[in-house]
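Input/output pair, single chain:
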Amino acid sequence: MKNYILDTSVIFKWYRHQDEPYIEEALYLLEKFSTGEIRIHIPILVFYEIGNAFSLKKNIKVEEKEEYLKSLYALGLEVYSLTPELATNTLLLAERYKITFYDSCFISLAEILNFPFITADEKLYRKIKNIKGVQLLKEVEKWD
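Output:
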């Protein structure tokens, strides 16, 4: 079974399909997870970032936002706390690649677990594309 680290830019697409590119690729990963073909690992930070993104969206009803958050928890993704090792490695990566601590947290988790990291954030990808295992969502090949 394949394991992946997905960042918030990918997971957000599972819930907001309007004005979002590469929805099909993001939903494909969710489908593969739902059928048990892949495992998805995330830092606990995802819940904060998704919650923040929803709180800023004025065109989504509060009830929908609540349902989205509940369903995200219900998926049973592999969630990791910010341990001292993860925090230290995250900080070093953030400094090295001149990216936010938040973005770096996902990459750091991918490095520690030795799993591929997938992002939909093209600006971030341009900064980190030389890191082993980093993939851009739009370039993820579909597995059969």
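The mean pLDDT is 93. Helices lie at 8-11, 23-34, 45-56, 62-74, 84-97, 101-113, 122-128.
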